[in-house]
Amino acid sequence: MTLPEIVPDVAALQRALDAENYLADEGLATAVFLAVRMRQPLLLEGEPGVGKTEIAKALARLLDTELFRLQCYEGISAGEALYEWNYPRQLIGIRLAEAHGVELAETELFGRDYLLRRPLLQAIEYAGPRPAVLLLDEIDRADAEFEAFTFELLAEAAVTSNRTRDLHDALTRRCLYHWIDYPGPERIAQIVRRRVPSSSQAIATEAAQAITRLRSLDLIKPPGIAEAIDWVGALGALGIEQLSRRAVEQTWGFVLKNRDDLNLAAARGGAWVAQAADA
Question: Which domain holds residue 131?
Fold first, then answer.
């Protein structure tokens, strides 16, 4: 099937993402639809945990194509993103040639057989039948020179950023742009129930409200959707069907991943987090 047949319109894409257990609102679905149909890079920004990486995974699944992911970081080089030479294999090739008295030409030594293909080259060379989805994760952690290099090469990509720093104008001009807001409790509960189907609506809703309450604090690492999913899974494993002070205090580690955050939340108390009556 061609791309227009798979995603004929925004509503169809929204339904297809839903079938892949990704709940996208109309704004995000529209941005992804245009990126796919116009073959332009899509720059997604938002807080950690709002589903930027997951949308690329869901898109690759519904398009039945490959996903190549490059995790960006400070100091990443073009070679680490595109390709490097397989030096151990080259050395073996040289020694084998010497052992057999054969002269190994430089063109052979630096041929395609000795390449270590990194995500950018893998995506560029991908044969299809449909284009690969290329995810450049947290590109704002890389330097401006690396941004310029990648966008000289790319015709299409999914790009995500947690806004560690402002991205270069040259990058943003080449991209479609969408900001993913952190969802409200109702949407969090919907996502949790998709990912933890054994959970009840009640515990998913209570956990979503508690996560939202915690995020109102001045936390260093506010809990995201991933923590909500893990938390509800842990509560289910413990046989807990209703959030309470004790349940919260038993399972802090599934929600808060920083000692200072834990102390701040503990000062408010498990009952405040759960909004329970058993204070």
Answer: 3-79+118-179
